[in-house]
Amino acid sequence: MSASIFLRGFDMPESSTHREDTKTRLIEAAGDVFAQHGFRASTVRQICKRARTHVGSVNYHFRDKKGLYEAVFGYSLQLAASKYPPDLGLTQEATAEEKLRAYIHSFLLRFMAEGLPAWHGKLMAQEIAEPSGAFDQVLENSIRPLYTYLAGIVRELMHEEKSPDGDESETTFLTALSIVGQCLHHHTARHIIEALRPPSFDPTRIERIADHITRFSLGGILALAPGAPLAKEKRV
Question: pTM (2 decimals)?
Answer without folding.
Answer: 0.80
